[in-house]
Sequence to fold (183 residues):
Amino acid sequence: MQKEFEIIVVDDQPDTVKPVLKAVRLMLELDYNYKINYKVLSKQDEVDKLNDYVCDIIMFDCALNGGDYDFRDTDGSRYGYELIKKYREKNNRTKIIFYSGSFVFEDEETFNFTVEDFIHIINELNVFAITNREVPRIVDTIKRAIDNLDTVLVSLEDLIYRYGEEVYSTIISYFMKFGDENS
Fold:
């Protein structure tokens, strides 16, 4: 059975990113036999409900400077970074890819990040990868992210999502029996 992987993409330019994602999906299916479902969140109300979506990988555009976003007193060039911080507060399992169509780290006018920000992105927010939006790079990054997913957590999350929270306590009590020497 072919495993399906869910990818959420937060990007303010859906018309630009959707053709890239179609090419990425096709390459991952043809080259690696991965079934990819993706959803692009480009509107403020979708982004506000970000933690309601279950996914294996989430991709954040670095410079969300267009669209219908309310940056809420945040510099638009840092909004993707701020969303990652908010997302990571409630979700530790999902692999995060931070990307941009024009990632050039030397261009300080485009990306208002300090060295400390990048250290925080990588270490504390546990961002899996930082990349640009070129199809081969995204394919490679997503493949590596899929290969690094914790399959036990993914399976448990899938069960909970499909059958509800009560399955979680049943599974945990079952696993607890393995540690009980009197059983």
Remarks:
- The chain has seven helices and five strands.
- Residues 9 and 91 are 15 Å apart (CA to CA).
- The beta strands are 4-10, 35-41, 57-61, 95-100, 129-132.
- The chain has a mean pLDDT of 77.
